[in-house]
Specification:
466 residues, two-stranded antiparallel sheet, 13 helices, GTP-binding
Length: 466
């Protein structure tokens, strides 16, 4: 699970600052840098370019009191930008209920709210008015919730944080593979079904309003209710229920926290990432699942205490294995790994098993070295730790020399040689991870300071304008 910090030149934060931390000087510009181009679904479900969004970390709240429903307002554009700096967007989708419950509630609400007007003495006029008002109320009760759901979904997708936009896109595509349901098409069809119900209701309301007799007004009302219910079940119900299943999957997606340092373990499949998370974590790691993954991801924590006496639980997680291939061919799990590095404030621990015994045909020594080179070139400013896992199984000298050529002699001196089985290097790795997490914390502090400064300037400008 990734719980922390799109051209996929994603400008997280452009901070050209150096901060002094324990152990020396660090560069804090990795957070707002131009990340190399990616090919992960450059368009979201509604054609929104993922590359056009700022990934600047912000508060992890829903922020529902916003002007996002006014499509022409400047405030709406500002609010959408603000939401894209927040997470929790996958829980901002409008609440949806099963279609039979929506229909039942609509019919009951009409009988509760619409009463016969006793002040009208003429029986025909009284029946006309009652029937037309009931038909109008029933039509609104059926159609308004569907209208709000369609608009709400499209608005939320446009306002998602870049990482959550990738998660949502992958979830939608996983559902499409499962049963062929395309979200954009489903929403359009749902809206068309709503329009059919709306037109039908308007037609019946007009007809009942002009009924020649009270008896016909009453009979037409019964007929109209039955026809409305049938049309709703056929045109709206299946789309609502299909969307409901997708919503459940989206809402179950682990939430992302942007203001807590995190470290993600990256590497080919079966190189020991999960075991490493368990070995360096304080407490028992959790297992979290994304709807489109075939296995859970291990999330652990490391307690950090800073010079000011404050402490926090930082996050350490494994990630789905990467294969040596182009981005266009990456599966959903690989895209999640890339998205975490592209959009979240994480340090990277790159794990390699160069023993030749990784146990996966796609995890050969040659492929692992290529993957390491590929990922590092893409994310050159990320705080980074190289780990040789399962070191007790041995590494051929020529393989080690090839690694040194790829990463450079200086970096090669800092590679952690690790064996969880033999308990080699675990303490060294934990210490290095604590160091890079402190680097991430420093960057997050700089980001927060910049945000506070911007808020102060905006408030001063607002006071000056008033």
């Amino acid at each position: 699970m990734f719980v922390t910090c799109r051209s996929f030149t994603s400008p997280l934060m452009r901070i050209h600052t150096s901060r002094r931390v324990i152990g020396g000087e660090i560069n804090t510009d990795f957070s707002r840098t131009s990340f190399q181009s990616l090919s992960i679904n450059p368009k979201g479900p509604y054609g929104r370019s993922l590359s056009s969004l700022s990934s600047e970390p912000g508060n992890n709240n829903g922020g529902s009191e916003l002007a996002i429903n006014n499509p022409n307002s400047i405030a709406r554009k500002q609010d959408l930008q603000a939401l894209r700096r927040q997470t929790g967007g996958l829980r901002r989708f409008p609440v949806l209920y099963p279609s039979n419950e929506l229909l039942s509630h609509a019919r009951k609400s009409v009988f509760k709210t619409i009463r016969e007007d006793k002040t009208i003495k003429n029986g025909r006029q009284r029946a006309r008015k009652l029937g037309a008002e009931k038909m109008d109320a029933l039509t609104k009760a059926m159609c308004v919730p569907i209208r709000d759901v369609v608009k709400g979904y499209k608005t939320v997708f446009k306002s998602l944080h870049p990482f959550e936009a990738v998660v949502a896109d992958l979830t939608v595509k996983a559902r499409e593979k499962k049963d062929g349901m395309k979200l954009e098409l489903a929403l359009d069809e749902l809206n068309e079904g709503r329009k059919k119900v709306l037109d039908l209701g308007k037609g019946w309301a007009s007809k009942i309003k002009n009924a020649p007799t009270a008896r016909e007004a009453e009979a037409w009302l019964v007929q109209a209710e039955e026809e409305m219910a049938t049309t709703y079940k056929e045109e709206v119900g299946p789309k609502v229920d299909g969307l409901l299943e997708l919503q459940k999957a989206l809402r179950k997606t682990p939430s992302v926290v942007l203001d807590t340092p995190a470290c993600v373990l990256v590497g080919a499949p079966n190189v020991g990432k999960s075991s490493i998370v368990k070995s360096i974590s304080s407490g028992t790691p959790e297992i979290s699942n994304y709807p489109f993954t075939t296995r859970g991801m291990t999330l652990g924590h490391i307690s950090q205490t800073y010079k000011n006496g404050l402490s926090e639980q930082c996050q350490v997680m494994d990630s789905p294995g990467l294969l040596w291939r182009d981005d266009e061919r990456r599966n959903e799990m690989e895209q999640l790994t890339i998205a975490a590095m592209a959009h979240l404030p994480t340090a990277v621990v790159f794990v390699m098993d160069l023993s030749g015994q990784a146990g996966d045909a796609c995890s050969s020594v040659e492929d692992q070295l290529k993957i390491r080179k590929q990922v590092r070139e893409r994310f050159p400013r990320r705080p980074w730790v190289d780990v040789l896992a399962k070191y007790d199984l041995g590494v051929e000298e020529d393989v080690r020399e090839e690694l040194n050529e790829i990463i450079g002699e200086d970096a090669a001196k800092n590679v952690i040689e690790l064996s969880v089985h033999e308990d080699w290097g675990v303490d060294d790795l934990r210490e290095r991870v604590e160091g890079v997490l402190k680097n991430v914390r420093t960057v997050l502090d700089v980001i927060e300071a910049e945000k506070q400064e911007r808020r102060k300037e905006e408030q001063e400008q607002e006071r000056a304008n008033n």
